[in-house]
Amino acid sequence: MALLAILLPERVRTSASAEPAGETPPVRPGQEYAWVSSPDGEVVRTQGASPARLLPKATTVVAVLADSDVAWHRVRLPKAPAARLREALAGVLEDNLLDSGGGVHLALFPQAQAGQLTWVAAVHRDWLRAQIAAIERSGTIVDRVVPSSWPDHPPIGHFESADSADDDSSDGELALILSLI
Questions:
Q1: Cα end-to-end span (Å), the chain
Q2: In terms of Cα–Cα distance, which of 133, 155, 179 is closest to 5?
Q3: Per-residue b/e over 161-178, b at no fewer than 16 CB within 10 Å?
Q4: Gyration radius from the chain CA atoms
Q5: pTM to 2 decimals?
Q6: Are 70 and 147 in contact (CB under 8 A)?
Q7: How far apart are alpha carbons 61 and 119 in whole angstroms?
Q8: How many CA atoms lie within 13 A of 120 on its CB side?
Q9: How far does CA 78 lie from the centroid of its chain?
Q10: How far apart are CA 69 and CA 148, in angstroms?
Q11: What pLDDT is stored for residue 164 in this prediction?
Q12: What is the DSSP string of the chain?
């Protein structure tokens, strides 16, 4: 099982003092993605940064969100049929979300059970769709999207951009401790 983990770049946010000049494009032309590949999901084979069209091939592709792009909310999971769960979650979270539920992608903590407290991740939906679409246009299909960390649990993956004085590269290297799956 060859694994490719792609670190999605942090979402660009406009400052409150900036003139509103329309939406900032979510993906820059020639956008480079930091990535790491592994033959087994435990050992790093190669790592680098490249445009989507030059990403290595793998059987499993995981997109990893930066901590700043995920808002975590602790809620009691509503008892609702699967077809209406998104609507029910948006209702529970409406006071916590700056956007109406329609502009936000919501994801439940694994093993969440109706009626129990659980974590819900909220991510800017249009930005996430644009990032995934940019990668998939190059022929790399993303199998799943994961946060770089979860609240109240040990880390499931850790990305670090390491710049050191001994390193000849100016942009640093991406280091990953693999345990994403």
A1: 11
A2: 179
A3: eeeeeeeeeeeebbebeb
A4: 18
A5: 0.74
A6: yes
A7: 24
A8: 26
A9: 25
A10: 10
A11: 40
A12: --EEEEEPPPPP---TTS---SPPPSS-TT-EEEEEEESSSSS--EEEEEEGGGPPP-SEEEEEE-GGG-EEEEEEPP---GGGHHHHHHHHHTTT-SS-GGGEEEEEPTT--TTSEEEEEEEEHHHHHHHHHHHHTTT----EEEES--TTS--S-EEEEE--TT---SS-EEEEE----
In total, the chain counts a number of residues equal to 181
Structure tokens at 130: 């644009």
Q: Whose structure tokens read 């401790």?
A: 177
Q: How far apart are CA 119 and CA 62, in angstroms?
A: 21
Q: What is the pLDDT of residue 179?
A: 42
Residue-wise pLDDT tens for the chain (181 aa)? 799 999 999 887 665 544 444 454 567 777 899 999 999 888 888 999 999 999 999 999 999 999 889 988 888 888 888 788 878 877 777 766 665 556 788 888 778 888 888 888 888 888 999 999 999 999 999 999 998 888 876 655 555 554 444 444 433 334 443 444 3
Q: Specify the amino acid at residue 72.
A: W
